[in-house]
Amino acid sequence: MAKRIEVSDLNIYYGDFLAVEGVNVSIEPRSITALIGPSGCGKSTFLRSLNRMHEVIPGARVEGKVVMDGQDLYGADTDPVDVRRHIGMVFQRPNPFPTMSIYDNVIAGNRLNGKKMKKAESDDVVERALRGANLWNEVKDRLDRPGSGLSGGQQQRLCIARAIAVGPDVLLMDEPCSALDPISTLAIEDLMTELKDRFTIVIVTHNMQQAARVSESTGFFNLNGVGQPGRLIEFNPTEKIFSNPDQKATEDYISGRFG
Amino acid sequence: MSTSTQSPTRVAEEPGGAIRRNRRLPRYAPLGLYVAGIALGAVLSALTGFSIALTAVYGAVLGTLAVYTGARAVEGRRKATDRLVTALVTTAFAIAMVPLVSLVYTVLDKGLARFDAQFFTNSMFRVVGEGGGAYHAVLGTVVITAVTAVISVPIGLLTAIYLVEYGTGRLKKAITFFVDVMTGIPSIVAGLFAFALFTLLFGNDVRLGLMGSAALAVLMIPVVVRSCEEVLKLVPNELREASYALGVPKWRTIVKVVLPTAVAGLGTGITLAVARVIGETAPLLITVGLVTGTNLNPFDGRMATLPVFAYYQLTQPGTDTQAFLDRAWTAALVLIILVMVLNVVARLISRFFAPKTGR
Amino acid sequence: MTATKTPTERPPAQRVVRRAGDRLFAGSAKGSGIFILVVLAGVAAFLIGEAIPALTAPAEDVPGGEGLSGYIAPLVLGTLLGAVLALLVATPLAVGIALFVTYYAPRRIAAGLGYAIDLLAAIPSVVYGFWGLAVLAPALVPFHVWAADHLGWLPLFAGPASTSGRTMLTVGLVLAVMILPIISAIAREVFSQAPALHREAALALGATRWEMIKMAVLPYGKSGVIAGAMLGLGRALGETMAVAIVLSGGAGATLNLISSSNPSTIASNIALRFPEATGLGINTLIASGLVLFVITLAVNMLARWIVNRRADFSGAN
Ligand SMILES: Nc1ncnc2c1ncn2[C@@H]1O[C@H](COP(=O)(O)OP(=O)(O)OP(=O)(O)O)[C@@H](O)[C@H]1O
Ligand SMILES: [Mg+2]
């Protein structure tokens, strides 16, 4: 299940533009890793390069190595589609498939891949995923209604259910709460804490309290100026980052003396 | 635009201070002036033998003049110009409605004479005078249009998918440009192309339903590409990313997420593309010809189609001229009905297949 | 495990594993696109191939006996005459219609009125031919007589007036009706996209509605209208059936719009002659079609160029 990700000397490009440079980090299994930093420093870019979503953008590419439990994700014979099945992703804005019911949304990862399932089996997958996402009680009576008919927070949990229904080892979340109200945010934070027993979780957030509340380790990204590549400035246990960071820049950012 | 810069200054020139009370024409004055203009117009046209058309023309001109002068005297030059333009613009629209109404009225008026069961159940086989029908032509049109759609929809849709989902660089630019260019090919030229192609393959005297379909496909493909491309572009990228992130390959994402999301728009676009080619005459005239009997095999010889049928009934009437003209107009009526039905179907598709948001 | 490659080798994105399904699907999509280019090239190639015999034949063998250019020149004149007439009539009307629908008609019915205009575009051209022959031509006969009497000093109206009304003038008006929806659709689109900020600024300065349109809408929509007019012109140049039915053509080159002897147009001439043509006659007609193809191609490319240049600035997408 949950797996360790080792990143070494990772450079990430959009065409000729070097967006993120020289990242070395080891992301622990069964824990939550938070990524923080000012806007535009490459957090999303880095996150998307972990499950090869980055290269979906025309011209985008990476150099360096990302290894998950011994397997080189960018190896010559690694199928990016396979990588994404093992490393799921939740986006900033909830994006359920508008043509599908709640049920179909959850089972989408299996169905879209043409996997044949018995009704009982898929029922089971859907229920477990929805329970896992703390959504089951709210939607169990209307599984056949459109997924886009849910509230924003429910939609986001639906997207989490959809991601975990595929059975990934790692969950990447890019500002999953930024479009949500405080109540829904708390619901999702609780959910993350539950999920970390089973998954490696990496979350990008602009909310310091959130990072402090949920994560075990925190990475701080920064960039020197416009047009410069972003860098991972500091990566440490969350407690240390928020109380006694190694770097001056980290301390400035956290105490709000910055950007 | 020299005047455009003047207008604001002119506004400023008007006496400042308190807001002036608007001097305006009474609310119903323009209407009254137009009615008076039309009445006068009726009298004028009666001088040269009364006609509704002349009355309308005189009425519009006189009414507009009266309103303009009235406004000029009461409201000032700028307001008067504004009223004049309003009148002109409205007239432009009214003028455009005249042919539409006249055309629909004429086709209904003349076409209803033979709009009967016989028209839809009989062919022209061994008919030289009255009677007969366009059974063979209606079916021929359906067959040829269906074959055209079978050729055009996959090619057009796949090309649109290429342009939106895969295309990069020069090839994409070239295809986009030439698809645009292709929309402008005259239909007769498309017919000549199909003719030249099939002559090369099968010799000089070949006439096939398939030739007609090939010609129509040249006209239909670019329309399908353009409309499908527009629709596919509207599918939010987030949905594609959501699918990729679930480990779904790109082609399955397109087939199972992008296309279903866009299905309403695609259906509408394709239906309108069919409507566009179903009335094409010229290319069929030179590739498919016309027969009096029923031939539904597009791979074997000449076929009858509704537009060509209508054309020949009108232009080459036999001895019983009226019977031929009646059939011609009925065929035109059926053609219009077909096109309108397709337009309505297109709208219904976009209404009923649109993704349900539920919120 | 350890990569055998040095880090400076190919960037990773270029050694992507692609699945068979993906390759197949992407390949067929790309293939379709290329197929379209091939078809277009084919249109040109086949037309040229079939036109060559007419190009190389001795002048007296070409129908009409005056060589290929002698055969095609009057047709080109007729084609241009009808299309330009249509354009001159349709463009101002279309601008008026577009303004009416976008800025004058009550909001609630504006969409419906726009749809009514679009219906004009849906009517098959053969039906326009019917209408032109049965309604418009006879209705215009009095005007023909009047024009011959009062405007006869203009070469365009030299007369004698046709008694059937099946003249270049009538054809031009039928074509104008047919291209009206094309031009007005594009004009409507660009007018409605005129920046609201400018429009409101104009109104806030106390401009009347017309002054607002003159200041903020027309300058913005100008190139769109021009492009629409070019597209309409392209359509009018290539229109076949309506002309073939309405026009009593076949006479030599003349600018006279109202007499009963008119030059034919390329497209209608093909439609009328092709079914009975044989041998070199077919090649000649195809050669004339090639000329039409080139003319419309040039017009359409120009139109697209204008449209695209505008799109670069409008900030759409
Ligand atoms: N699709 C793209 N094409 C080109 N450049 C991009 C693209 N997406 C992002 N960038 C650039 O890459 C850099 C990093 O962007 P990224 O979205 O990763 O920042 P971020 O840290 O996630 O910011 P935020 O906190 O605002 O989400 C920025 O300079 C951005 O302009
Ligand atoms: Mg981001």
Provide structural commentary.
Chain C: It is a multi-pass membrane protein. Chain C: It holds the Pfam family BPD_transp_1. Chain C: Residues 76-303 form the ABC transmembrane type-1 domain. Chain C: Belongs to the binding-protein-dependent transport system permease family. CysTW subfamily. The complex is a heterotrimer of chains A (259), B (359) and C (317). Chain A is α/β, with parallel strands linked by helices and 259 residues long. Chain A has ten helices and ten strands. In chain A, strands 6-7-8-3-9-10 form a six-stranded mixed β-sheet, sandwiched between helices. In chain A, strands 2-1-4-5 form a four-stranded antiparallel β-sheet, covered by helices on one side. In chain A, a hairpin with a 2-residue loop joins strand 1 (5-14) and strand 2. Chain A starts with a strand and ends in a 5-residue tail after the last helix. The model of chain A has no long low-confidence stretch (mean pLDDT 91). With 359 residues, chain B is an all-alpha fold. Chain B folds into two domains: 29-105, no CATH class; 119-353, Orthogonal Bundle (MetI-like fold). Helices cover 75% and strands 0% of the residues of chain B. The longest helix of chain B has 35 residues, at 77-111. Chain B is flat, with a radius of gyration of 28 Å. Mean pLDDT of chain B is 86; it is low at 1-15. Chain C has one domain (57-314): Orthogonal Bundle (MetI-like fold). The two termini of chain C are 44 Å apart. Classes of the chains: A alpha/beta (259), B mainly alpha (359), C mainly alpha (317). Chains in contact: A-B, A-C, B-C. At the B-C interface, helix 1, helix 4, helix 6, helix 7 and helix 8 of B face helix 1, helix 2, helix 3, helix 4 and helix 5 of C. Bound molecules: adenosine-5'-triphosphate (ATP) and magnesium ion (MG).
Short description:
Chain B has helices spanning 2-13, 29-47, 52-75, 77-111, 117-121, 135-166, 169-183, 187-202, 209-234, 237-245, 250-278, 282-287, 306-315, 321-352. Chain B is mainly alpha-helical.
Pick out its properties:
heterotrimer; A: 259 residues; alpha/beta; Rossmann fold; 6-stranded mixed sheet; 4-stranded antiparallel sheet; 10 helices; C: 317 residues; mainly alpha; MetI-like fold; flat; disordered N terminus; disordered C terminus; binds adenosine-5'-triphosphate; binds magnesium ion; transport (chain C)
